[in-house]
Write a structure and sequence with these properties.
six-stranded antiparallel beta sheet; alpha+beta; 344 residues; D-amino Acid Aminotransferase, Chain A, domain 1; Dna Ligase, domain 1; 12 helices; globular; 3 domains; Rossmann fold; four-stranded antiparallel beta sheet
């Protein structure tokens, strides 16, 4: 691959240092993804410039105009403190006719809106738990078509924000209480869906037109189901001490038949296309003991930290970290937004 000018877009508080010498583990963990991507791209021989994005696009516009990067590598997860606004930044890149990595703004907008995602998937007859939306500021109304237990989460926030063991509710009083908690804590609508008891399955997808499904990954909840519900709470995902206490880990899904692996891969690709995604994404599924699958979420631009689930799954497929980032860059360069139709 030729040497490229790559503009690495990160949150303004997560601009990585040139090296990690002398930093505490907490400080390293804070910007680990950004440092991993920056250092890997530099080691591949690219000219990398990091730009921190907060609540203005002035510096981004100037960097694009002055430096004329071949591609912008997008690691943003929000804009102006709002998770659902990150797709506006990508739309701005398209208006600037600037190639970028990751998902297009339409796919990001749909997949970030969990309710819209479920409606789109239902229209494509894909299996997803029955649900109800409780908008912020509206009076609580008892859902009449859903059965307990139910699972309550934010309709827009990600990274397990607001998810705990209390998210699984068994009666109407607990449901009302949890909906109010989500409203108060996340300032977003509450999405309530029937709880699917089963295996937590993840599958990464790479591509624009031609798609590649990565090996099926699974959350192993260890001893947790013996005392609590097996759900991916914030502690389960991010608390190392909690993970060690309960033996929680992620890895390649075991004991799946070839037909099950094929079905999971095909479903992941169908979701990707239905939501008009591009670049790369991760699908979160649940598999019941009878083998039936349910779509929980579709995650555009998932975590690219070295050694984490997406990169590890790619590694198992023979795609090293360097090759993964190279592939993501190439997909960004190859993506065909509407503005390219008008190029001379």
């Amino acid at each position: 691959m030729k040497r490229l000018r790559i503009l690495l877009m990160v949150h303004e508080t997560l601009v990585p240092p040139a090296d990690l010498t002398g930093l505490s583990e907490a400080d390293i963990e804070e910007c680990r993804t950004e440092y991993n991507v920056m250092s890997a791209l530099e080691n591949l021989g690219h000219d990398v410039r990091v730009i921190g994005v907060g609540d203005r696009l002035t510096e981004l516009r100037e960097a694009i105009g002055d430096w004329r990067p071949h591609v912008a590598f997008n690691l943003l997860e929000e804009f102006s403190g709002i998770v659902s606004y990150d797709h506006y930044v990508v739309a701005y890149l398209e208006l600037m006719r600037q190639p970028y990595t990751g998902c297009n703004p339409r796919g990001m907008m749909i997949s970030r809106d969990k309710v819209l995602t479920k409606r789109v998937l239902a229209s494509h007859r894909m299996p997803t738990p029955r649900f109800a939306l409780f908008p912020l500021g509206r009076r609580f109304r008892e859902p009449r078509r859903l059965q307990f237990p139910m699972f309550v989460k934010s309709a827009t926030e990600d990274a397990s924000l607001g998810i705990s063991q209390a998210s699984v509710v068994e009666d109407m009083a607990r449901l009302r209480e949890r909906v109010e908690f989500i409203h108060d804590q996340t300032h977003s609508g509450a999405l309530v869906e029937e709880f699917i008891d089963g295996r937590e399955i993840y599958v990464g997808v790479l591509g624009n037109e031609r798609l590649t499904a990565l090996p099926v990954w699974e959350m192993n909840f260890g001893t947790l189901p013996q005392v609590q519900s097996a759900i991916a709470t914030r502690k389960v995902k991010w608390d190392g001490a909690y993970q060690r206490k309960h033996g929680i880990s992620t890895g390649r899904a075991q004991d799946l038949s070839p037909s099950q692996v094929d079905a999971i891969g095909r479903l992941a690709k169908r979701i990707y296309r239905a939501l008009d995604m591009s670049g790369f994404a991760r699908m979160d599924l649940r598999m019941r003991p009878d083998g039936s699958l349910f779509v929980l979420e579709a995650n555009a631009n998932p975590n690219l930290t070295y050694g984490e689930d997406f990169a590890e799954s790619a590694e198992l497929a023979g795609i090293s970290y360097d090759k993964l980032l190279t592939r993501i860059v190439n997909l960004g360069l190859a993506y065909q937004p509407d503005w390219r139709l008008f190029e001379s």
